[in-house]
């Protein structure tokens, strides 16, 4: 058994947070301003400070955030962007929306994130940027990726949609993901570690020029109202979502520690079970947006867990290059790790309000299901 670790009452904390959210929403309603007002401005300042970034620019979704981050960095038609197929399809959508062409590389077999040693083979004269995806809350090996980017004069735009608060040790210092490249994209979809009550996203950058471009692009390219200095789009984080996020941001570090504690409980409770547990690397801080295991006979194990009342997820069952709309991206791609793990991965319940007893029950049911399937 895992030693007892003090745990606050997750239900009580949730109720307190909900009360604060309701008060914040009422305040927005009383003011009567709903687009790009003081709540958005305050959240942008607070989120940038939390990360240690120069600027944060609230937008309508995580997909928009990545699209706008790429464009704000100057990525466009004729450029190639190296990323992975083992990701939410939104990563590829955003690259294509920028006008660039996605080029796919395989992932590391232990962390399921982009393998920097494979970047050389994907490099061409058209390569403009790298998009490392910090998947499941697990950071990419940013030290190696940044070294490659510097050597080849490439932009780095981090996809942090699942990694709020995750961190990497680079050059002897810890840095939160989203602050290491030229720009980064965050999603505030409701299920994220930091989630809104609907869609929302944020471009984060340490570059003043990129921040200025992102602000222009999110609202029609306006420098002055109704006058477009360039072609932009409508992608704005609204005041209600910003107010909600300001409340939740105060809880994020505690919720991430809850996830890490629950992951440690799973880690020990699943010892000796024929599953591959998530890798934890000494120079990276995983924040467990998902707790993903690999298991043979995955579908049989999932069915047994479902029968026992344990829900599981697949993130993601079909790699992007095998999906009907994107099969052209697979031409010439060699992604054996990606294709293998997609038939074996399974996400166990993971959320800050999950109790220790709940995690223990899940682990016990996994043990029974794996034994039965074996």
CATH A-level architecture of the largest domain = 3-Layer(aba) Sandwich
The H/E string reads HHEHEHEHEHEEEEEHEEHHEEHHEH
CATH superfamily assignment of the largest domain?
Answer: Type I PLP-dependent aspartate aminotransferase-like (Major domain)
Number of helical regions: 12
> How do the strands line up in the largest sheet?
1-9-8-5-4-2-3
Return Rg in Å: 21 Å
Question: Looking at CATH, which topology of the largest domain would you report?
Answer: Aspartate Aminotransferase, domain 2
Q: What kind of sheet is the major sheet?
A: 7 strands, mixed
Straight-line distance between termini: 24 Å
Count the domains.
2
CATH C-level label of the largest domain: Alpha Beta
Shape: globular
Detail the poorly predicted runs. 1-7
Task: Report the structural category.
Answer: alpha/beta
Number of strands: 14
Beta-strand level of the residues, as a percent range?
A: 15-25%
Mean pLDDT: 96
**Helix percentage:** 25-40%
Tell me about this structure:
- It is a single chain.
- The protein has 374 residues and is of the alpha/beta class.
- It has two domains: 10-249, Aspartate Aminotransferase, domain 2 (3-Layer(aba) Sandwich); 252-373, Alpha-Beta Complex (Aspartate Aminotransferase, domain 1).
- The protein is 39% helix and 15% strand.
- The protein has helices at 10-31, 38-51, 62-72, 89-97, 119-122, 142-152, 208-218, 239-249, 252-269, 298-307, 336-341, 356-373, and strands spanning 55-59, 80-84, 101-105, 127-130, 155-159, 167-170, 173-176, 183-187, 201-205, 222-224, 227-228, 284-285, 291-294, 345-348.
